[in-house]
Design brief:
The complex is a heterodimer of chains A (about 260) and B (about 325). Chain A is built from twelve helices and no strands. Chain A is an all-alpha fold. Chain A has one domain: MetI-like (MetI-like fold, Orthogonal Bundle), CATH 1.10.3720.10. In chain A, helix 1 packs across helix 12, helix 3 packs across helix 9 and helix 6 runs antiparallel to helix 9. Chain A is globular. Chain B is built from nine helices and 17 strands. The radius of gyration of chain B is 24 Å and the shape is globular. A six-stranded mixed β-sheet of chain B has the order 6-7-8-3-9-10, sandwiched between helices. Chain B has two domains: about 230 residues, 3-Layer(aba) Sandwich (Rossmann fold), CATH 3.40.50.300; about 80 residues, RNA polymerase II/Efflux pump adaptor protein, barrel-sandwich hybrid domain (OB fold (Dihydrolipoamide Acetyltransferase, E2P), Beta Barrel). Chain B has about 325 residues and is an alpha+beta fold. In chain B, helix 2 packs parallel to helix 4 and helix 3 crosses helix 4. Classes of the chains: A mainly alpha (about 260), B alpha+beta (about 325). The interface between A and B is medium-sized, with 25 and 41 residues. The structure holds adenosine-5'-diphosphate and magnesium ion. The site of magnesium ion (MG) has 3 residues of chain B, from helix 1.
Chain lengths: ~260, ~325
């Protein structure tokens, strides 16, 4: 019993060290910009860089659009597949896994071939078109996470019976999705949204190849040109990502509760 | 007068599996009808076709002469209560009850009044701000009932609404449902596999067997004059009598056999008690009559102890009580 605990703790500590040591080292390094003493100079330098603010804002806006488009695509799709076409579910699962298998590089080269300025649908011919294309690419990248979050949300409520209960009360399909389904999976949707956000904020390949001023390319650019700022930026983006993850946990407590009580 | 709810030659197949095989019935306004039968006999499927969730393979369903077959569920103006309550978890009790009213465009103040009226009717006044998960199963199902009847539906459909509840609440809630139904005079179709439940609350019972109707009638008719062997066996207890004495396919209810002669009894059987079951107000004896097991229900009495296992006893019965079982 005692030794069981010992080994469990040892594994836990080794595992934690694997994550914590590089993080702590990075943090320590980010504080050493001023010679001979610890300071937050590197952070001050990052925050005073106008490109930091503009690229971060750009990525936040693209992230928000990605989330909205993602919800509009995923929620009705998951709802109707679960309700009307359950036989499509394995195909859905497969398709939503593709973005994890196909490298972003392949995706973006495909985009450039398909939507390049000399093609029939030249999305990349204008700034707005490229932004739309980037958003669509991010929706695709986030699909595995958004799909699973929404699917989990719908698993916890009996969407079939709730839909029928609303239908017999006179509600149409749109009213059912807006007033019954969406509010009941809101927490799941938000957790998908935070994951999406975390992905978009750090994404480099697509934004860079489409030549958009996003946060990911900015991070990489700083990384190749400066010494201490990249460490500070790494810590900052780490905090943003973990903030988003933490929100998922907090939100979980507000999930709608159902109870199959027999009394 | 034409019937209020009319079902004609209703057939439903899932692929090659025909689960409802040409069902006909017609009922008057205000009746409480039960669809009774073992699990899998097609009761829910019939109810779901009335609600519009399943499309009949053939046949017609009419309410007040209007053919429902091509109306969507949300156009039928019906109310339905589900086995698993199916309250909307994100809405309060008040908003659950008001859901159909809001969809129908009733103004907020009228909605509030109607919700209050419904909560009083189901005995839960002041519960409008609660959420479903804060309530017991029985309370949730009463709210589901209120939600179903608040928009004054033409027909109330109940699919095993008591099956998820504990035995005690099951009995009290079924009485409450019946009282509310009588009060409002709302035509009701109640699906159950529990014959006691169907007997105790229905005006009329439709006994179903593998997609067909075996018998339709009042609880009294169905119990006392079962039309088929299936109905006789499914509704209440039944003893098959020894073929040597009575001939083939003859049976009798346990409570019609007594241990002492009655003015109307004309036949006796002798047997050995093989089991004694004390059920409270009733004592059930299992008697072995020359190899045929026969159950007898007698009332418990304070003064006399019930017979013991192994005792030899004489059973008295009246030939007029003996049922002849057909197909
Ligand atoms: N959607 C469906 N697809 C295929 N078979 C079904 C479907 N719904 C019901 N059935 C079948 O129809 C038969 C009757 O079901 P049901 O009406 O639910 O019975 P009951 O309510 O009397 O228990 C069952 O054998 C069931 O498996
Ligand atoms: Mg059923």
């Amino acid at each position: 019993m005692k030794s069981d605990k010992f080994w469990a703790w040892l594994v836990f500590i080794l595992g934690s060290a694997y994550f914590v040591v590089p993080l702590a080292a990075t943090f320590e390094f980010s504080l050493r910009m001023r010679r001979g003493e610890y300071s937050f100079d590197a952070y001050a330098s990052v925050f005073s860089d106008p490109y930091f603010a503009s690229s971060f804002t750009y990525s936040v806006v693209v992230g928000l659009f990605t989330i909205i488009v993602g919800i509009f695509v995923v929620v009705p799709a998951v709802y109707f597949v679960r309700l009307r076409m359950p036989w499509l579910k394995p195909i859905m699962e497969f398709i939503t896994l593709l973005p994890l298998v196909i490298p972003a590089l392949v995706l973006v080269y495909g985009y450039i071939r398909l939507y390049g300025s000399s093609s029939f649908i030249p999305f990349t011919g204008s700034v707005l078109g490229t932004d739309i294309l980037l958003t669509c690419a991010y929706v695709t990248l986030a699909l595995p996470y958004m799909y699973r979050a929404v699917d989990n949300g719908m698993r916890t409520i009996d969407i079939g019976t709730l839909t029928e209960a609303a239908q017999i009360a006179g509600a149409n399909q749109l009213q059912i999705i807006a007033q019954i389904i969406l509010p009941n999976i809101l927490v799941a949707i938000l957790s998908g949204a935070f994951l999406t956000f975390a992905i978009v904020i750090g994404e480099f390949t697509i934004a860079s190849l489409l030549n958009r001023p996003a946060f990911g390319p900015y991070l990489v650019g700083i990384g190749t040109n400066r010494a201490y700022e990249p460490a500070a930026l790494a810590i900052i983006s780490f905090i943003i990502t973990w903030g988003a993850m933490g929100m998922i946990n907090v939100l979980g407590r507000f999930a709608p509760r159902t109870s199959a009580r027999t009394d | 007068m034409a019937a209020f709810l009319e079902v004609q030659n209703l057939v439903k197949s899932f692929g090659t599996n025909t689960v409802v095989k040409g069902v006909n019935f017609a009922f008057d306004k205000g009746e409480f009808i039960s669809l009774l039968g073992p699990s899998g006999c097609g009761k829910t499927t019939i109810l779901r076709m009335i609600a519009g969730f399943e499309r009949p393979t053939s046949g017609a369903i009419r309410i007040d002469g209007e053919d429902l077959t091509h109306l969507k569920p949300n156009q039928r103006k019906l109310g339905m209560v589900f086995q698993a309550y199916a309250l909307f978890p994100n809405l309060t009790v008040g908003d659950n009850i008001a859901f159909g009213l809001k969809i129908a465009g009733m103004p907020a103040d009228q909605r509030r009044a109607r919700v209050e009226e419904m909560l009083r009717l189901i005995g839960l006044p002041g519960f409008e701000k609660r959420y479903p998960y804060e309530m017991s199963g029985g309370q949730q199902q009463r709210v589901a009932l209120a939600r179903a009847i608040a928009p004054k539906p033409r027909l109330l459909l109940l699919d095993e609404p008591l099956s998820a509840l504990d035995a005690k609440i099951r009995v009290s809630l079924r009485e409450e449902i019946r009282a509310i139904q009588r009060d409002l005079g709302i035509t009701t179709v109640f699906v159950t596999h529990d014959q006691e439940e169907a007997m105790s609350i229905s005006d009329r019972i439709v006994v179903m067997n593998a997609g067909n109707i075996d018998q339709m009638g009042s609880p009294h008719e169905i119990y006392n004059r079962p039309a088929t062997r299936f109905v006789a066996g499914f509704v209440g207890q039944l003893n098959t009598l020894p073929e040597a004495t009575f001939g083939p396919n003859r049976a009798i209810r346990p409570e019609l056999i007594s241990l002492a002669p009655r003015p109307d009894t004309d036949t006796t059987l002798t047997g050995t008690i093989s089991d004694v079951g004390f059920l409270g107000s009733v004592v059930r004896l299992r008697v072995d009559v020359a190899g045929t097991p026969i159950n007898i229900d007698t009332f418990n009495s304070h003064s006399t102890t019930p017979p013991q296992r192994g005792d030899t006893i004489t059973l008295h019965l009246a030939t007029k009580d003996v049922l002849t079982l057909g197909a």
